[in-house]
Amino acid sequence: MTDTPPDTGMGPETPATSTRSNRRTRRLAIIGALALVLVAGAVLVGVKTTGGRSGATYTVGATCANGGTCVVGDVGPGTGIVFYAASSDFACGTGTTTCRYLEAAPYGWYTTNTADKAAIWDVATSMAAGCSSGGKTDWRLPTDVELNSLWLYIKTANTTVKVSPKVYWSSTVEDPNSYYHSQDLRNGTQYFMDYYNVNDFVRPVRAF
What we know:
Radius of gyration: 29 Å
CATH topology of the domain at 64-207: Mannose-Binding Protein A, Chain A
Low-confidence stretches: 1-57
Oligomer: single chain
């Protein structure tokens, strides 16, 4: 008579070895599946298909200037400084276009020898719109709120943003008599300037 081993739940040695092998295979399969999930998650985190960059796709590992996410102080796509980063998308441009950041044109945007240029208001508006820094064509005069945000960045940033020693135009009109908001980017003083004032300077901005 052949003795039958008691059923202890452990089984003989060979099946136990097989069980450990099977468990190892399952663990490796689970680890592999988790790795795929993590990789897929990284791709999804790195790619943004709506908002923030006017619907453009963010590239994994890209810098702010090359399609990545941005923080205040980064060099933006237009080679200027990002001085404002919103916590959520905001409307910009026309239609359903949304943006997340504001960028100020770099020092010397007008010519290589002059930081910024002074002009009366309508010429200043045309100059800002004609800025092509970084190959971008959506530059414009900042609103008074945007101009003040630029001043706040200059005031608090742990870096130097070069500006000309003058007051800068905004696009915001004060009253029907053609007075426009202006601001000194050295000390933050705000003014109402006459349309024909030739002493205010131009620093274009863009949203993206």
